[in-house]
Every structure is written in C-alpha cells, then in structure tokens.
Amino acid sequence: MNILMAADFCPPTSGNFIASLITLARKLRSDGQTVIFAFPEKQRWIDWITGEGFEAVIVGKDAMAPDVQFPVLSSLLKQYKIDLIHTHFGMFHHAILHNRSAIKDVKILIHDHMDFGIRYNLIAYYCKSFFLSAKYAAKNINVISVMQRKHRSYLFLRKKWYIPNGISFERYIDHSMTREACRSYLGFRSTDKVCLLLGWDMKRKGLDIALKAVQRCRESDPCVCLAVLGIGTGPDDSAKEFIRNETGIDPAEPWIKYLDSCEDMFAVHRAIDVYISASRKEAFSYGLLETISQDTPIVVSNIPGTRWTDVYTSSFFYSTEDAAGCANAIGRALELGRRQTNSSEIVKAYNIDGWCRQIMDVYQKL
User: Fold this and answer.
1) How much of the chain is in helix, strand and coil states, percent to nearest 5?
2) CA-based max dimension of the chain
3) DSSP letters of 352-363?
4) What's the N-to-C CA distance of the chain in angstroms?
5) Do 40 and 10 touch, CB atoms closer than 8 A?
6) Cβ proximity of 288 and 197 under 8 Å
7) Which of 159, 164, 195, 309 places its Cα 20 to 30 Å from the Cα of 237?
8) Cβ neighbours for 288, distance < 8 A, ≥ 6 positions apart
C-alpha cells in the first residue's frame, strides 16, 4: 500500500508531531508499505525525514489555495500511485471534500488534532460537526480524533476512531541539554522560579490568565516569572496590544521572558519549575505529555481536553478563566517543587509504539 502522509504543518521545530509520523513511517516500511510525505513549506526537520530514506514533497504555500489544491493533489496521487491519504491539519481538505468522486478509489483518513473553537457556543460547533460528519459519510471519508468529545460529535460517521496522541522521545537534535545548561541557554537566573506557557494562540491558550496569575504570585514571591514560547522573542504589535488590553500589564515587564522556538523541548521542560496549561480549549496537549515525562509540576485549566492529566501526582487544577485560582495552583506547584512522580505510568499509557499500532490497525480496517 502506498500512503500519502500530508500535513499543513510548517513550524521551525519538528516537535512530537513529526517524530510521531517518522516512527509510524518506519513501522509501515518494515511492514512492506510505502510512505510519501507532503508539506507546504521546507523546514530544517525535512532533512530528518529524507535522511530516514523517505520522500518528502514540498508543494508550496500557494498550492494550499482552494482553487489549486486538487490539481496538485491529483498529480501526487498519480505520480506515487497512492492508495490512502492520511491528512493532518486540514491539508488538501478542500480538494478531497469537493472532488471525492474523482479520486473515489483512494482511501481517505482525516486526522483531527483540534478541539472546537472559542468564538461560538458549543451547540453551534456540535451542529457544524454533525453536518460535516454527514458529508464525510456520504463521501466515504474517515476520521481519527485525538479528543473524545470531538470524536463523539461526528454523529453520522460510521468509520471514526478516537486515538489520543502518543509521546516520542526523538527530536531532530544531536543530544539533549541538562537542566542547568538549558537554564543558562535560555537566560534564566539561578533564583528564577520559571513558569512556562506555550502561547502560539494567545486567546485559546489563555496567555492573559497566565500573566495575571503570575503577576499575583509575584506579590508574595518576586522570583516567580513567566516564560512564553510561541509568539517570538519580541512580541509584535498585535501581541503587545492583546497583553495590554486583556491584562493591563506592560508586555515589556522584565519578569515576562519571550522564548524562541526550541527543538530540545524535553530540556526546556526540565529547565522550568512549573508548566502552565491555561487553555480555554484543548484537544490533546503534546506539551502536557512531554512535561509530565520530565517530572515537572503542571498547572492545568479544568477543561475536557486536559482532564486526563488528573492521574498525574504533580498536577494542580483550577477553574478556567480564574486567574486567582491559577495563581493559587502555581503557588502549590512551586511549593511542591520538582520531585519523582508517576510519570513512567503515564508515559507507558501514551507510548508511541501503542499509538502506531492503533493507527496501523485503522489502516488495515480501511
């Protein structure tokens, strides 16, 4: 079987997502299958994929425009004699949905990595998902969801699977830094009590809540600071405006550290003191899973997509939108400190080999 692994994914670092796909592709190859990757842009980690002996096609950002997607996809299907398309983050979604009859002999598997959005109420999102599931069912399009609530919302779809993400300990790096080396590399002082938030989507990820919470913590402990990764080392005007408007905090405060993208995220999670997941919506967080694997305390908003972490012995929950509650949870996490946890049990439950077996089982069923 020839599989097209297509992903509209182009950050500068590979992260757990690319590591997971490479592990899956290796297993498929050993099972006699052929995997072709397709991405909109070339990033450094493409060399990791090609170095593993897999072909990676860079189609260009322009090829993602709705009116040109299908000719690009059709050409790939013919060139590589593709039997199955496994698409991530919506790549070629428009082409597949509107030209299904033209590629009726190709199996389609959409991997839904997201929770619902934050703009409308839940009923509106469920209605949209019901409607979409009916279209998918009519066009023989199949879905994997990483979140159980989203999985259930595909009401009319018979071929659907709920598969949480797995954790891979591989990255496109030579070796991982020690805690001390990483703290020095990131510019943290020995006295800093560092909280980390991954904030690529500031509103969805709750950057405002985290900022207000850390500001509260600093009233009693000025060593507490917030490191933000995902909005650049110097926030642009829109990020500054968001911070000022949503929190009243000066984005140039010295206790706010803006970090650059980092491939060695396991070292980052060891270097910090607390990981904050202040998300308003979340499907299944790679960040939480990676942090747990390094025995780092986590502070988590009490939303459906993150409740799976309540079995972790160093997790501290607070009510979503409650900055005071978040500050209290940060204080308790810092007081507990870094210590041995039940991380090995959680890593075992979400190991990458188990994830690959589940995905390959879906392929067989298709």
Assistant:
1) 45, 20, 40
2) 64
3) HHHHHHHHHHHH
4) 11
5) yes
6) no
7) 195
8) 275, 277, 298, 300, 306, 309
The residues near 306 (Cβ < 8 Å, ≥ 6 apart) are: 277, 279, 282, 285, 288, 300
Residue 342, pLDDT score: 97
Q: What is the DSSP letter of 61?
A: G
Contact 60, 38 (CB under 8 A): no
Q: How far is CA 17 from CA 9, 22, 129, in A?
A: 9, 9, 24
Counting beta carbons within 10 angstroms of the beta carbon of residue 306, is it exposed (0 to 12), middle (13 to 18) or buried (19 or more)? buried
- Cα separation, 288 vs 269, whole angstroms: 10
Q: Which helix (H) or strand (E) holds 197?
A: strand 193-198
pLDDT, tens digit, 9 for 90 and up, residues 110-162:
999 988 887 778 888 889 899 999 999 999 999 999 999 899 999 999 999 99
| pTM for this prediction | 0.93
**CB atoms near residue 222 (< 10 Å):** 11
Amino acid identity, residue 138?
Answer: A
Instruction: State the DSSP H helix or E strand holding residue 289, giving kind and residue range, or none if neither.
Output: helix 286-293
Quote the pLDDT of residue 188: 96
The number of angstroms, rounded, from the C-alpha of 89 to the middle of its chain's C-alpha atoms is: 10
Question: Could you tell me the two tokens for 264?
Answer: 């060695």
Those residues whose C-beta lies under 8 Å from the C-beta of residue 45, and which sit 6 or more positions away, are 13, 14, 18, 172, 263
Sign of CA dihedral 175, 178, 179, 181: negative
